[in-house]
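Model: You mentioned two targets. I'll fold them one after the other.
Researcher: Yes, keep them separate.
Model: Target one:
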Amino acid sequence: MASSRKLHADELDIDEALVRRMVAECFPQWAGLPVEPVVPAGTSNAMYRLGAELVVRIPRIPGVVEEIAKEDVWLRRLAPRLPVPVPVPLAVGGPVDGCPWPWSVLRWLDGTTPVPGRIAEPGALAGDLADFVTAVRRIDPTGAPAAYRSESLADRDTGTRKAIAAVPDLVDAAAATAAWEHALAAPAPVGPPVWLHGDLQPGNLLVSPGGRLAAVIDFGCAGLGEPAVDLIPAWYVLPAAARAAFREAAAPDDAAWDRARGWALSVALMEVSYYRDSDPRMTAIARHVIAEVLADHA
């Protein structure tokens, strides 16, 4: 049985039988370990627990295949410089029958994904997120690739307005347009691009039972871009009451904060437009973000 319903038209058919065959063919030393899908499922990569200590990561769509090689190179360099664990690849498997592209095996990291609106220790988590964002930003950018979100907000204008128009039943179009135009009017970033995680959404964060940041996963979007991109957890993860603490600790200027609000809005709008009929969980998170951004802007 497949791990989940398909989210993309060009998605690979992946199930537990395929994962067992992939592991047995490429890494026979792990062939006897139990395999089970990780829930909730990722939107770009399928994740399968392999025994107690490992996880298999398989691209679901062709557009993210190159992320496997990028993570294999760069996570090894980034990990020692970050304040929380990240999933450094242990091995990369080659194509097998049923999976025509590379895939990876990583160390399993414990924790649960935070649920927006139900954060146990929002103030502490705000500080942890700011520490992580600051640490990533300070890493030497020499030789680093461009981030997945390395464009400017202006470059996203057409796509963002198209997303607003596509979901008039789910989003207050006038309010969303006003908030988006406010972000577009913010001064452009000053200075060279910096390292970003690029996708600090709830599904890419793990928290401890006490509510602290335990790990950050999925560096497929990582690379160089403008610092405001990594401020989106202010709206994607944190409640309004903890937002000021995150802002103070991350220390963006007013223009960067306005751009960050625009990044959160644009990403969420595109997610609502794309996933509304295929992924209720992603759609619910994105609608929550849009509501938070519009309330904040108002």
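Model: Target two:
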Amino acid sequence: MDVADERPAIERRAVVRGGFYETQARTMIEKVPPASAVAERWALSPYRGCAHACRGCVARRGHGSLGLDSGRDFDTRIVVKANAAVRLRAELARWQGEPVAIGVAGDCYQEAEATYRLMPALVAALAEAGVPFTVYTKSPLVLRDAELLAAAGARVAVSIAFVDEKIRRAVEPGAPTAQRRLELVAALCEAEVDCQVLMSPVLPLLSDAADQLAATVRRIASAGAEGVRPVVLRLPYGTRQWYLSWLEQAHPALVERYAELYDKAGMPSPGYEERITGQIAQLARSYGMRCGPAPAPAGRPPQADQLALV
């Protein structure tokens, strides 16, 4: 009698190497989930899951389709799309040039990238196709490809939501410190890479006090950033359960207030969001920085022999 294979779907179809789940992607360019904070409509992610383990990451829900949970599994079971560059080139042959985001389902420069080095080939493919793109990351590893990114006309959006290290250890336990990310912004600017800071996510009642916002914006400006985009914490399905389970343990007095602040879709109340983003916009202006989504990066004209590379 055959015994049913009850392993998670990803374990049945992936090759496990060094703790990573290697898969062959069927598609690379996908629609950005509505709850995402990125400005682009389309995204590609060479990795799913993220070792940064940020409790408020809106990408957590995606692990459910793999038969994994959106909590600890998202942080520790990282899926690698080993054929990412080949698949992307095939899709770019039919792409109409709309801007894309990289790293929405998991930081594209997290620890796995040091092993697999998928990003240089993806950057090259997008540059050759003349597609504007933004890399979303918290990792200093992006500096390895600074020259490639600058030549491609890409933008790098570095996430720095707060500069309080105690909060960072609690809600972003696997991520680089805010200081390292501020140094990353300065280094990217020095390398002439188009760099914006994504001040995301601002945590209600934890990192949204006036002095906290002021300290964060001041240090972002000091790092040389030309623009900042504030995003208040969003709690879609998957993220909501993981974040609130932590909140109940760490800050039980805030649970009821969160229930009042968020709707069923996990979006903060418009009044609260407008107040916080308005405060940050005023602070940004005082330091001469742009606030809000920046125009899409210009990219570079496609190379004439692009199709020959597909």
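Researcher: Noted. Anything on target two?
Model: Confidence is low (pLDDT under 50) at residues 304-310.
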